[in-house]
Write a structure and sequence with these properties.
- Helix 3 (38-44) packs across helix 4.
- It is extended and about 65 Å long.
- 56% of the residues lie in helices and 0% in strands.
- Among the domains are: 76-152, no CATH class; 160-190, no CATH class.
- It is mainly alpha-helical.
């Protein structure tokens, strides 16, 4: 995004997108945010980010506490150590949850990540890892169950991992997959 601003291509949408694509390729591709941060990617996506955020924040059926919390997160003023340090209410922006976990494990507390809303909302925060992972699995299970329930009776698709999360290694331990082809053959073709 900075490159787009420097080159003046941010004014015209197609030029902005092309500049960002070139920058993204230079920085390593798909595992990096397109516009600089994952939040910016979401907010700049047409008919998604800002549109959905505005829709959510103006929906009176959603309790105001939830809307307020989201508004604070977007504005960058949730009471995290980073924000509290910025306004002079704390001495350090280091993540307090990561510190507690590292101390409990007897590990070094040097080079702790900054406690931002994004950090504590991710599995990258050692103190929130279990909670965030459980939330992820719960959402995935709900989505998976909904897709399975909506499946038409004549569909030939078979949901093979409704009972638990699987990957290619665990799936190929099952007899029905070994009958299709060996794990090695699959890896070679992939």
């Amino acid at each position: 995004m900075v490159t787009a601003l420097q080159h003046g291509t941010w004014i015209e949408e197609e030029g902005f997108k092309n500049t960002c694509i070139k920058e993204n390729k230079k920085r390593g591709g798909i595992h990096q945010p397109f516009y600089g941060t994952w939040v910016a990617d979401s907010m700049l996506r047409q008919d998604a980010g800002r549109f959905m955020l505005g829709k959510y924040l103006s929906d009176k059926k959603i309790p105001w506490q939830r809307r307020r919390r989201l508004g604070m997160a977007v504005a960058g003023n949730t009471p995290t150590a980073s924000f509290l340090t910025k306004i002079g209410k704390m001495q350090s922006a280091e993540c307090r949850l990561c510190r507690i976990v590292r101390e409990a494990r007897g590990e070094s507390t040097e080079d702790l990540a900054a406690e931002t809303h994004g950090h504590i909302s991710s599995a990258g925060c050692a103190g929130m890892e279990t909670t965030v992972t459980a939330a992820h699995h719960s959402i995935w299970r709900h989505l998976y169950d909904s897709m399975h329930a909506a499946q038409k009776p004549k569909s030939k698709l078979e949901f093979v991992t409704l009972d638990k999360e699987s990957n290619m290694s665990t799936l190929w331990r099952r007899e029905e997959f070994l009958r299709i082809c060996s794990k090695e053959d699959l890896a070679e073709k992939a």
